[in-house]
Amino acid sequence: MALREAELTETHNLIFESNSSHPCSTPNCPLRTPTGPAALAACHKVFGRIVGPSQLGTKVLQVPEFYEDREGELQCVGPGVCSTCVDRWDSGHAELRKKVWATLPDVFGLGG
């Protein structure tokens, strides 16, 4: 439960909060207007993709797939989101994984 809670909270901050505090500067990216409907739809899709449904357990230790192959062409899981934003999410999730891995001994009562 502790891992799932960390996953949901930290992933939410990564996807939604970082976009609000640092809007994208790429002209056609929906995250240029972080509170707009296109940006929120993209963020919800990416958030769901990373955390998945609760019955699957935590996925915070896995590397998320931010791109999927669609008929031989790689496309971002967030509709129309630029590669700069995807790269920011990717590096942020890498940091999140490091943080969670470091807390695993405490989660299982093995901290010393």
Structural class comes to: mainly alpha
How many beta-strand segments? 2
Largest sheet: 2 strands, antiparallel
Number of helices: 3
**H/E element order:** HHEEH
How many discrete structural domains?
Answer: 1
Percentage of residues assigned to helices: 40-55%
Question: Termini separation (Å)?
Answer: 21 Å
| Share in β-strands | 5-15%
In a nutshell, what does this entry contain?
The protein has 112 residues and is mainly alpha-helical. It has one domain.
Outline the secondary-structure elements.
Blueprint: H1 2-21, H2 37-51, E1 67-70, E2 73-76, H3 83-107
Antiparallel strand pairs: 1-2
Helix pairs in contact: 1-2, 1-3
Describe this structure in words.
The chain is mostly helical. The chain has one domain. Helix content is 54%, strand content 7%. It contains three helices and two strands; from the N terminus they run H-H-E-E-H. A two-stranded antiparallel ribbon has the order 1-2. A hairpin with a 2-residue loop joins strand 1 and strand 2. Helix 1 packs antiparallel against helix 3.
Provide tags for this entry:
112 residues; two-stranded antiparallel sheet; 54% helix
